[in-house]
Amino acid sequence: MTLSNIVVLVKYVPDATGDRKFEGDNTVDRVGVDGLLSELDEYAVEQALQIKEKRADEEITVTALTVGPAAAEAAVRKALQMGADKAVHVQDDAIAGSDAAATSLVLAKAIEKIGVPELIVGGLASTDGGMSVVPAMLAERLNLPQVTLAAVVETQGDQVRIKRDGDTATEVIGGTLPLVLSVTDQSGEARYPSFKGIMAAKKKPLEALTLADIGVDASEVGLEAAWTKVEDTAARPPRTAGEIVKDEDGSGATALVEFLASKKFI
Amino acid sequence: MSEVLVLVDHVDGAVRKPTYELLAIAKRIGSPSAVFIGGADKAAAVADAVKGYGADKVYVVDDTEIKGYLVAPKAEVLQQLAEKTSPAAILIPASAEGKEIAGRLSIKLSSGLITDAVDVKVEGDDIVTTQSVFAGNFTVDAKVTKGTPIIAVKPNAAAPEQGDGAGEVEEFAATISDAAKTAQIVAAQPRQATGRPELTEAAIVVSGGRGTGGDFDAVEGLADALGAAVGASRAAVDSGWKPHTFQVGQTGKVVSPQLYVANGISGAIQHRAGMQTSKTIVAVNKDEEAPIFELVDFGVVGDLHAVLPAVTEQINTRKG
Ligand SMILES: Cc1cc2nc3c(=O)[nH]c(=O)nc-3n(C[C@H](O)[C@H](O)[C@H](O)COP(=O)(O)OP(=O)(O)OC[C@H]3O[C@@H](n4cnc5c(N)ncnc54)[C@H](O)[C@@H]3O)c2cc1C
Ligand SMILES: Nc1ncnc2c1ncn2[C@@H]1O[C@H](COP(=O)(O)O)[C@@H](O)[C@H]1O
Prior knowledge:
The structure holds 2 protein chains of 2 kinds.
Chain A: E1 5-9, E2 12-14, E3 35-37, H1 39-54, E4 61-67, H2 73-82, E5 86-90, H3 100-114, E6 119-122, H4 134-142, E7 146-150, E8 152-156, E9 159-165, E10 169-176, E11 179-183, H5 195-201, E12 206-209, H6 211-214, H7 222-225, E13 228-235, E14 243-246, H8 251-262
Parallel strand pairs in A: 1-4, 1-6, 4-5, 5-12, 6-11, 7-11
Antiparallel strand pairs in A: 2-3, 8-9, 9-10
Helix pairs in contact in A: 2-5, 3-4
Chain B: E1 3-7, E2 10-11, E3 14-15, H1 17-29, E4 31-38, H2 43-51, E5 57-62, H3 72-85, E6 89-93, H4 96-109, E7 113-123, E8 126-133, E9 138-144, E10 150-153, E11 168-171, E12 184-190, E13 204-208, H5 217-226, E14 229-232, H6 234-238, E15 259-263, H7 269-272, E16 280-285, E17 298-301, H8 304-319
Parallel strand pairs in B: 1-4, 1-6, 4-5, 5-11, 6-10, 7-10, 13-14, 13-15, 15-16, 16-17
Antiparallel strand pairs in B: 2-3, 7-8, 8-9
Helix pairs in contact in B: 3-4, 5-8
The structure holds flavin-adenine dinucleotide and adenosine monophosphate.
Flavin-adenine dinucleotide sits between chains B (209-211, 233-236, 247-252, 264-266, 268, 270-271, 274, 284-287, 290, 303-305) and A (39-40, 185).
């Protein structure tokens, strides 16, 4: 099988260094805070681009796909600047508040609409929800295998080999295209968009799709349709300032040992 | 009483601790049924082990046909068991593999999934989970509103409870599709035993960062004196001083021990994401402005290469 299309899944998330919070309905506030392309999805874009570059004799199109509010366009724009060829942005007011299951439905239908590629690449986790399940759910919906959490990725012909740190072993995993791949931040530094890349991105196609375009009914997504419900959110009480001592000639060690003993750790 | 399916986490039949924690949670909800997918020759020993922690039933699924394949076959097994038993809930360890099994299962059963639960309670008719989100800055209570609740539970969410379950063994022959037998483990190098507790399960974690300068002796010495697991920051991992499996943080392990000791670690947000729900936090850092000091219950401003060996020595003297 030759590789002709790669879809890379990119999510627009609230900036983790900003003040992330919840709305009154317990959904993540995605409007009141600055957002950006999830840092961890930059690694997915990077791997998609590297695969394309390594297989220069094949004609490969890398399409960045995002599901999110109007501002999420910034996520696919960044992917285009990094070097993706095309972008697709699924946006619909009805999607707001969707859970992972609904997100995977929208992604699956959008991918079916634009044509199921040989390779779908996602990130390790979104930096806001952080469930690490969307790639698995998407693979299930598209009835594809998944090779996930790759620290090293190699492809040859229709074969994909990855290396990853499993729970109890370091594993080499093999799969055959078509499949869903996800990569970690160990897979290789993501490139910065060059000035040329930024200019070129302005001319690249960016397709906007609605739920109607991809054949998903509004009742299947959004907060009301979610299979889980957040009952309550609470900010963790700030840690009260602890005791800080300066070490002088071993006094720090003694004080620390006394602290540990007082807490019954020794 | 309804069954609660618990996927047994094991390495070649050696049951891992999170399984027992899940059984304790299952008891709050209904009658615990352990699901062992593994070698038939290990089934008796596994059944014995989980019975001792309250399993009333043990479903044994011989994995000869599916061994080495990734998550998809296990999701099919659980789907078929769920259809047969109509369980009150399905509990799965929130490991990387567990979450992917849960993700596929959620779609198969059209059932809601909650990942990374740090607590699970029964309130009236509801199963309510607690999660820690946004780098540990918020806690969220949630419940599944559709289908069979599928909950991926983090290590240490409950204390294992010994107690005899009925332990009735039932062999279950699942039908695995060819489509599920695709992605395959080609080679595996089992993690070398360190002789120390597992990072995610340990009651105490002692970590080192760039400030160690690559010399982890002082960190490991203290860890051993405290019976602790050893962790590392990404800077230490990226420098090649420790393998990635030691990394604590957003893209490493998330730990929540009784005591976390950060040494030569500045306390970047991505590191905090992996440790700030620890009960007690201690830091040793030579820079008094290091952000890690905002989190600590006790901090020492000093050189870790001087402070840690002295602490270790005093602890060892006290132990006699
Ligand atoms: C996408 C992404 C994911 C990331 N994921 C993670 C993650 O999972 N985990 C993680 O840890 N980081 C992660 N990071 C990296 C994170 O941002 C920080 O760069 C990293 O945590 C810094 O590690 P450090 O504290 O060891 O090093 P530094 O920030 O360099 O801090 C070293 C500290 O050691 C102190 N020090 C130096 N010498 C001594 C001495 N002799 N005695 C005592 N103190 C000394 C210094 O004062 C300093 O505070 C991630 C970053 C990105 C972009
Ligand atoms: N709304 C979305 N749009 C595009 N990709 C997504 C979206 N949500 C999740 N993903 C992809 O799925 C991965 C895992 O997400 P999660 O399961 O939310 O942690 C991310 O790193 C993305 O690659």
